[in-house]
Amino acid sequence: MNTKELYQEIILEHGKNPRNLRKTENFNKDAKGHNPLCGDIVHIYLKLNEKKKLEDISFEGSGCAISMASASIMTDLVKGKEENEVKEIINDFLGMIKINPELKSKNLKDDEKTKLMCLSGVKQYPMRVKCATLSWHTLISAIDNKKEEINTEKFD
Amino acid sequence: MNTKELYQEIILEHGKNPRNLRKTENFNKDAKGHNPLCGDIVHIYLKLNEKKKLEDISFEGSGCAISMASASIMTDLVKGKEENEVKEIINDFLGMIKINPELKSKNLKDDEKTKLMCLSGVKQYPMRVKCATLSWHTLISAIDNKKEEINTEKFD
Amino acid sequence: MNLSNIKKEFPIFNNSSLVYLDSANSSQKPQSVINRINDFYSNEFSNVGRSVHALSIAATNNYENTRVSVQKYINAKSKDEIIFTKGATEAINLVANTFGQKYLKENDEILITELEHHSNYVPWHYLRQIKGIKVEFAEIDQHGSVSIENIEKKINSKTKIIAVTHVSNVTGAILPIKEISQLAHSKNIPVLVDGCQGAPHLKLDMQDFDCDFYAISCHKMYGPTGLGILYAKKKWLEELPPYQGGGGMIKEVKKNNITYADLPNKYEAGTMQTAQIVAFKESIKFIENLGIENVMNHEKKLMDYAVEVLRKNNSVKLIGNPKEKSAAISFTIEGIHPHDIATILDEDNVAIRAGHHCCQIFHETLGIPATARASLGIYNTKEDIDRLNSSINKCKKIFNLK
Amino acid sequence: MNLSNIKKEFPIFNNSSLVYLDSANSSQKPQSVINRINDFYSNEFSNVGRSVHALSIAATNNYENTRVSVQKYINAKSKDEIIFTKGATEAINLVANTFGQKYLKENDEILITELEHHSNYVPWHYLRQIKGIKVEFAEIDQHGSVSIENIEKKINSKTKIIAVTHVSNVTGAILPIKEISQLAHSKNIPVLVDGCQGAPHLKLDMQDFDCDFYAISCHKMYGPTGLGILYAKKKWLEELPPYQGGGGMIKEVKKNNITYADLPNKYEAGTMQTAQIVAFKESIKFIENLGIENVMNHEKKLMDYAVEVLRKNNSVKLIGNPKEKSAAISFTIEGIHPHDIATILDEDNVAIRAGHHCCQIFHETLGIPATARASLGIYNTKEDIDRLNSSINKCKKIFNLK
Ligand SMILES: Cc1ncc(COP(=O)(O)O)c(C=O)c1O
Ligand SMILES: Cc1ncc(COP(=O)(O)O)c(C=O)c1O
């Protein structure tokens, strides 16, 4: 494994210039996440309309290139989708980053899949998987209105 | 080292039929000792007269052959001697059992030294030195009127 | 691997006539465990969990793999229920301390038994001193065991936890811990089992035993020294406060407050026994390869033989005669103190233990200051028992007994 | 033995291009220590103290010999002042727990510093939770150290104990612990020193430092994992209550009361880390053979070189610049998160650590979430620093920094 595969251009670029790094006005759901190992923190804001469509999503936070890029790409991909579609995408991503060789979701277009697969290099770096998944776990938490802050200080 | 040297006839004999295993009437000093490792216990009673002469000494207790024999031989040897002589003999014995090759005391006759040297085999058995010295430490304690029970659960 | 020539898996028996009958104290280590320690330090050493470099990642995986091995071996529901400790003693202290802190108040009762090792009494005594709780003792029966009736007798509305040994380290008595759990749970009382002498010799199934806590010493289980395991049901580990505080067990540390990590990290403060934990996987593998049923069978045959041989030997008095008996047997010889026995046996290279075996209450109850104990491991043989017996005869000769 | 080719004493560096700069986390182990563990388990294994057979006697002697080696090495007055623990974390927990039990009450203050490792904060936090005592923090200065003035400022009549690190595991700052002891003692306050990062690198002289407690992690000192040492002045160990309860630490056990063993046994409950303790004697011998002055000299030169090289490297920002500095150096690179640095360095087989290094208070005070840390051991060389530097340059290239 080569760090070039991990730190692909697209990750470095999203890491440096994250999309949706702001706070949604009139958000109606939010959640915080924290990776105590790295000190990565993320705060996700959602605006879900009555039809359960994700009108807007944004995040605030700081962290390593992997976690910032992951949050940036994630927010880009799920924006405008319906809640159940979003959940399905999250599951697909978390499955891929742990064991599955590829993404299977019908809710993602091919070019969206390609973009997400840029994060797959992290599989080879178990301690860094947490960085890539932090924002995703936090998004679940926001959708489900969970009160507790997401925390990655678990071995899994 | 051979256990025959440790368990010499004289030790076995004193162990089986300890001398002075009783309680001195009108004792004026006493002390208890305990070896938690073996469960050996000893209670020593003294009668010191005004001239600091050891008029009588006796003990109660139970324990292994080494500790019973040691108490038996000790009480036999110190009876009738003066307090400072007794202390000198105790030091000599404790020195011998730890490092000195022989006994040096002027307060012991040659045959008394020979008898005591029967206990020297214990030197080769560090865990058993405590058995041999318990009654001696307890005798010091009795002479010095120490309140605390003697306990051998120390490494030394 | 084969039980009949298992001794050669243990380097200490190479070129030596050692008869080791002190496994209840600590067991010898197989080559595979020793090699794993060696390899780990020589080629793979790193601290776990905190660094992202490759050595650390590999070490962390190895560390967690042992946890999973243990979980499977003892049939715990979750790997989060496996906490690594310094030994069974620390495991019991952890429970007594945290359970006491959270749930116990003055005049509450803790029920233990007269068979308990000091490690399953002193930690509860602390609560007596600090909190004014009471420690009650279920009585031993004439076989040197503790019946469920004797436990039931001492349970009352003030009983807040029952702490019993799985197997007596003196008489080898196996206590009916599944039934004790059932009884206790019917009255809503949690059960801690001191599994020190059960873990190396019996089939372990936490979900079947259904006890709340089970303490293990890995060094008695063919593993490295300095390592123990606390099994605890998840709900307890979640509810109880943390024990030692330090690195690795925290979530967030602020000047005015601290939050704690999730399980199992909450109970693993500071740098743990990395090499020992990694190597303990080999101990589990070693037992699994032999098959615990085979081990139990082998040790039972051997123990039956030992009982038979020693019972036939005049002057030898066996302490206790429990129906369910594991790998330890204690005895006295009228006229020879146990320490004298142990010293004389040692000259024949027969290693046994003499004393109160950290069970002063038991010895006081029986009115004997000390006993001699022979305890078995998987490497022992009938010849070992014969050598024990002939050395006992030598003792008797030296002391002029017949 | 010679410092110039010391790497070959450590098997992990054989046939590997590993640059290990994570010794503050845990150090690598020399062959002599690994061999001793191996030999002990293979040929000499027994539990200590409790059995009278020959193996046990020899093991007990070896065990106690390590205690004496440690006593001499750290110049403690008595071997009874050396207590073996699971690690520095347990050592500090032991003191916080027993000192807190006996001497602290609501509103009493404990003074620590903003530099402390979580292991020297969480145990005191427990007392805050349980007893309502207060934890005060002496402030760091601009060099990343804590001056004696900043400590003095926070002392008042409620201060009951001062607990400070000997050396910061982030900035490498060496605190003036002898002066801190003098100051504290002039006000009748005892001092605990977290010696984790001092013990492997500095000359230890307890009678000169005059601190009341000093905690050591043996695994950072070229010793086995799972072992630590608490040095404590005898009067404290005599006055404080025991910590964990179990076998080996008792004098007499009755149904209604328990008395405790004399020092040092009082604080060593249960079966200890026999093999690790026996082997740690080799770690001490290893350092003694090199000579701690030579070690200090070697590490100082190397650290000066590291500071020089990293300071010249654009974009690298060193954290803290303490005048008295030991073997750790932390840094950040504007535009690259420390975890990304560590991952990229790892590919070049350069092992460093990234994160908060169990010092969240320090990082929060500085307003940086994480740092990268390189820490030295006696096996490091100038080439290692050069490799560190060129891997940093590779990071910068990947991230398009100049
Ligand atoms: C300054 C300091 N204190 C305490 C500790 C805790 O030591 P251990 O984890 O060995 O108990 C460490 C090491 O992690 C440290 O660097
Ligand atoms: C029944 C029992 N409980 C507890 C212990 C204590 O175990 P450890 O000393 O390994 O902590 C032992 C062993 O000495 C034991 O036999």
In whole angstroms, the N-to-C terminal distance of chain A is 21 Å
Strand order of the largest sheet of chain C: 2-8-7-6-5-3-4
Number of strands of chain A: 4
Helix content of chain A: 40-55%
Number of domains of chain A: 1
Mean pLDDT of chain A: 90
Total number of helices of chain C? 13
Q: Trace the largest sheet of chain A across and list its strands.
A: 3-2-1-4
How many strands appear in the DSSP assignment of chain C?
15
Backbone shape of chain C: globular
Strand content of chain A: 15-25%
Based on the structure given, which CATH architecture of chain A is correct?
A: Alpha-Beta Complex
Tally of DSSP helical segments of chain A? 6
Q: Provide the CATH superfamily of the largest domain in chain C.
A: Type I PLP-dependent aspartate aminotransferase-like (Major domain)
* CATH-scheme architecture of the largest domain in chain C: 3-Layer(aba) Sandwich
Would you kindly provide a written description of the structure presented here, covering whatever features stand out?
The complex is a heterotetramer, with two copies of chain A (156 residues) and two copies of chain C (402 residues). Chain A is of the alpha+beta class. Chain A has one domain: Sufe protein. Chain: A (Alpha-Beta Complex), CATH 3.90.1010. Chain A has six helices and four strands; from the N terminus they run ααβββααααβ. In chain A, strands 3-2-1-4 form a four-stranded mixed sheet, covered by helices on one side. The longest helix of chain A is centred in the last third of the chain and has 18 residues. Chain A is globular, with a radius of gyration of 14 Å. Chain C is an alpha/beta fold and 402 residues long. In chain C, helix 2 crosses helix 9, helix 10 packs parallel to helix 13 and helix 11 packs across helix 13. The radius of gyration of chain C is 22 Å and the shape is globular. The two termini of chain C are 42 Å apart. The mean pLDDT of chain C is 96. The chains are: A alpha+beta (156), C alpha/beta (402). Chains in contact: A-C, A-D, B-C, B-D, C-D. Chains C and D meet through helix 1, helix 2, helix 3, helix 4 and strand 9 of C and helix 1, helix 2, helix 3, helix 4 and strand 9 of D. Bound molecules: pyridoxal-5'-phosphate (2 copies). One pyridoxal-5'-phosphate sits at the interface of chains D and C.
